Amino acid sequence: MTNPSSDSCDGTEYPYSNISIKTPPASPVHPVVVGSTYSTRRNSNVCECRSALEEEAVSAVREFSFAVQTVCISEILPRTSDLLFLNLTTLEGSTYCIELTSKGWRIASNRQDCMNGDFRQLSLHTRYFESLNQLLDTISPAYRDKFDSSLAAMSIDLGSQFIKVGLVKPGTPMEIVLNKESRRKTPNLLSIRNGERLFGDAALATSVRYPSSVFGSLVDLVAKHIDHPSVILFQKRFAHLKIEKHTNKSSIIFPIGLKTLRHLTCIFRDEAYPVETLLAMILSHIRDFTASFAEHPVKDVVITVPVFFSQAERLAVEKAAHIAKLNVLQLINDGTAAGLNYGVFRRKEITETPQRLLIYDMGASKTVATIVEYRLVKEKYSKEPRVRILKVYAFIKMNQNIIVLSILFLKLSDFSRQVFYQMSVLGVGFDRTLGGLEITLRLKDFLIRKFRANYKCEKDITENERAMAKMLKEAERLKQVLSANVDHYAQIESVHEDKDMRIHVSRNELNMLIEDLVPRMKLPIDQALSMAEIRLEDVNQVVLMGAGTRVLKVQEVVQNHIGSKELGRFLNTDESIAMGALFQSISFTSYTDDFSFELDYGDLNHFSEIQRKEMDSLISQIFTVSVSGLDKAIKEKVKTDETEFKGVKVAFQLDGSGIIRVQSGEAVIQKKSQGVVECLYIFMYTSSAITNTISGFFSTKKEEGEPTDTDEKKDEEPIETLSDNGDKPNLDIREEKNSEEVGEKYSESDQEQKNESVTEDKTAEKYTTAHIMDKNDMDSAKKILDHYEKREQLAAERAAAENSLEAFAFETSLLLDEDSFISHSTDDERKELFSEVSRIRTWLEDETGTDTKASEFTKNLMKIKNLVKPVQKRIDESKTFLPALSNLEKMLNSSRIMASMGGDNGKTLFSKNDTKEFNRKLNKLENWILIKKEEQMKTKPYHDPTVLTSDVETKVRALDRELKSFMKKMKQVTLDVPKMKNEKNEVEENEITENKKDNENNVNNNDIGSGKTDGSKIEL
C-alpha cells in the first residue's frame, strides 16, 4: 500500500484505474468513510505523475464517495491525459459509466449498455456538467434530497429598500443570487391586489399605478405597537398606506381588500394581514428564486438585521422566516457582516498590531457606525491540530438595564502557525431614522413646493396618490443624478391634472435641504467612539457603505468630521453585507471547514434620549418571567432551624442571533449547619421566548405531551421533603462557597431523572413590547402563505396551458400553407385540421376567461396535436429514412469486406462455417433492404410509410452486434519464423544472382560500343 496523497515521486507509478471506493457507515445519515486501494505496476522505475484529469477524478472520488454506493476509475475503458472513464453506482442502485474530459463530466451510457459497446448519444448523454456534484444532482434524486440541499446555505441582506441574497453550495463558488429578472438586488416590495401578489421589480412597476397596494419598509415595523415612534413616522412618510391596530393585540396590521374571484378555490373577502405575515411572503419569494437559481431547494439561511434591533424585533424576523419555511441559522448584525467580509479578504494584512476600521453605513432608513478591530492572537490551547468546528459562545452583560450587541470574534484557524485571526466589534452608534429615504422625502417635498409655485391646479397634488408616487420615484432618481452632476431637471409627464412638470434643481439646493441633518450624520461616529473608548486618532481606516453615502453632502460631512483621514470606498456598497453573512452561513454547513467563529456581546451605555424612546422595549425590560409554585416549595422545603431560603436563580442564554432565551431556573435553599446549597431544578431550555408557558418550574412530567394519572394526581401534592441525612436522589444538591456563586452544570439525562418526582407548576415569560406571534398566529400565517402559493401555482399552470395552446394553434395555421405539409397530407386531413384550428382560435378570443380551467386548454391542445401528428410523422420519415438506409448499406459493404479478409493460400482469419453463416445473414439483410426500398418507392408521400426509420436503425444495431460477434471468432495465426527467414534468404540470393548477370551484360554492351572485342585494341 502506498500513500496516494504523497506528492513526492519515488519511482512508483500509481495506476488510478485501480481505485475502488466503498462506503462503510461513518455517520447516522449515510455511509461516508472511504476505503481506497492503490496498486503499483511491476518492473517500473520511471515516476509517472498524475495528469490534471486524473487529479480531478481522484479528488472528486474522495469528495463524493459518501454520497454514492461505489465509485471507481475504469480499468477496461481507455484512459489518456485528455480522457478517462469512471464507474459509478448511485444510492438508488443505478450504475453509470461517466466520462471525464477537459469539457467536463458526461454520462457516457448506462453501465450495461457501455459494456455491450452501446454508446448511444441520448439527450442526457450529450450534456457536460461542470462538476460531479451537478451530475449526481441530475441523475440521483436520493443524493439531491439527502445531501445536495443540506450542503447549501444562503444569506439575506434584509434592507429596507433592497434585498441582496448570497448563495454557497457544493461545486460552485460563493456568489450573489440573481432574481427572476437577472438582477443582483431585489426591491423589498410586495404588492397585493385582487388576490394576486407581485414581488420585487414587478411590485415596483405597479407602485405608481396602485400605490395603496404596494407595501415596503416592512422591516422597520416588526414587533412594534401602534403608538411606537417608528410606526408614527411610517404613517407620516407613507400616508397612502393604511395601518390598523390588531384586535385585542398591540401589533399593527395592513387592511387588504380582496375582491371575489370565481375561478379560485376560495372566495376572498376583505382581510387584514400582520406585518410579519407580509414579511414572511417576501422571504418566501426569496426562497423560491434562490431555489430556482441554485437548481435545488435551499432552506438554511443567515439573515442580517440592524444592530439596534431589540429581542422582540429579532424574534419577529426569526418567526417570519419560519413561516416562510426557512431554517434560520443565525441573525447577524449588518455591521458585523460587513466587517467579516472585509476581514476574510484582508487576512494577509492582519498582524499582531491591532488594526481598527470604522464602517460608516448609511442605508435607506438607518445610519450605523461600527468600529471593528483585527489582530492576530496566539493559540491558547494544545498545539495539536483540532477539527475546525463552529463554536458560538454568547454572554450577556447588563449595565443599568442596557443590553446590546456586539463583539464578534472571528477565528480563522491556521494550525501551522498556531494563531487566530480575530475580529472584534468595539463599538457601534446609530440613528435608526436617518437614511437615504429621509433625503429622498425632503427632495420630494421640495419638488411639490416648486410644482405648486409654477403650476396652478384645481386640486392640491398631495390629494393624488399616483402623483405622489410619481414624485417619490422622480425624487429618488434626481438624488442619484445630483450625486454626479451639479444640476439637473426633474421631469414627469402628466404628473397631475394632465400637466407635465419640468423643474430645475441644483446640488446646492439639495445640500440646503439636508443642512439640519449634519449633526445627526456625525452622531453615530461619536457614539461608536464613545462605546469603544478610543479616540478618532486610534482608528486606522474609515470606509463608507450604503447607498446613502453616495450623496456628496454626506461624504463631505463625514470627511470634515474625521479630519485628515482618507475615506475608503473599497467595500462593495451593495453586496458586502450579504457576502459577509454568507461567510457566516458557511460555518453552519458540513461542506467546508475553512472558518471558525466565536461570538461575544459587550455593553452599550450611552443611548440618547431619542434612541431610548425608539428602543423603549429594549431598555426598560426585555421580557418578564412569571414564577408560580414557589410558595408551596418554600413551605415544604424550608425549615427554620435547618435550612434557609436564599433566593431564585434564573439563567438566561444569549444565542448567536442576539436573542435572549430562558435556559434554567433554580430555587436556592441552604442548610445552615453544613453550608450546603440545595438547588431545585426549575426548567430546561425553552425554544419559545415570548408568552410561552414553561411547564416544570420546580416540577415536570416525565415527558412533555404525555400526561399520566399519577401526574394529574400530583398536581396539588407538595414537593417531597428531604431526609434527615441530606440524601435527595431526585434533587440537585450543590456545594458553594457562598450563595452568590453558580453551581456546577448537570447533563440533561441527570436533570430528567431528578425532575420525575417533582410536581408540576408553570411559569410564563412575556415581552413588554408589541404582541409577538404565538403558535396559533404562525399557523394562521402559514395557511395564508400556503393558500396563496397554491393559487399561484394553479394560475401558473393555467397560464402555461393557455400559452401552449395559443402558440401551437398559430404554428399549425402556418403549417397548412407549407408545401411539405400539403404534399404529405390529404385534402380531408387539411380540411379537418383547418376547421379545428379556426374553432380553437375563436374559442380563445371570445369564450375563455379567468374561470377557464387548465384542463380545458390541455384538452383542446391534444385535439390539434392528434391531427398534426400523423402528417408530421410522414414529413420526418421522408427526411430521415434515406440517410438511415444509406448508413445501413455502408455497414453492409464493410461487413462483406471484413468477412473476406485473409482468404489467400488457405490462411483465412475465420473458419469456413463462421464465414458461411455470416455471409448468409448478410445476404438475408441485403434482400430485406432491396424489398423495403422497392416498397417505399411505391408508397405515396401522403400515405403512411411501410417501413420506418426506427426499423432501419434496429437493423443497424443488429448488424453491429453480429459484426462484433463475428470479429470475436477471428483465429490466431501462428507464423513459422525459421521458414520465413529461409525463404527470405533464398529470395535475397536470387536477387543478387540476377543483379550480377545484369551487370555483366551491361559491361559487354559497353565494350562493343567503344571498339573493344576479344581483348584486342582496334585503332580507327
TrEMBL record:
Keyword Plastid set for record: no
Source organism superkingdom: Eukaryota
Pfam families linked: GSKIP_dom, HSP70
Region (Disordered): 700-766, 977-1020
CDD domains, per the entry: ASKHA_NBD_HSP70_HYOU1
One MF term in the entry's GO annotations: ATP-dependent protein folding chaperone
GO biological process: one example: endoplasmic reticulum unfolded protein response
GO cellular component assignments: endoplasmic reticulum chaperone complex
Keywords on record: ATP-binding, Nucleotide-binding
Composition bias, Basic and acidic residues: 700-716, 725-765, 978-1000
UniProt keyword annotation of Transport present: no
SUPFAM superfamilies, sorted: Actin-like ATPase domain, Heat shock protein 70kD (HSP70), C-terminal subdomain, Hypothetical protein c14orf129, hspc210
Ranges for domain GSKIP: 54-152
Classification via InterPro entries: ATPase_NBD, GSKIP_dom, GSKIP_dom_sf, HSP70_C_sf, HSP70_peptide-bd_sf, Hsp_70_fam
UniProt record similarity statement: Belongs to the heat shock protein 70 family.
Protein name: DUF727 domain-containing protein
Species of the source: Heterorhabditis bacteriophora
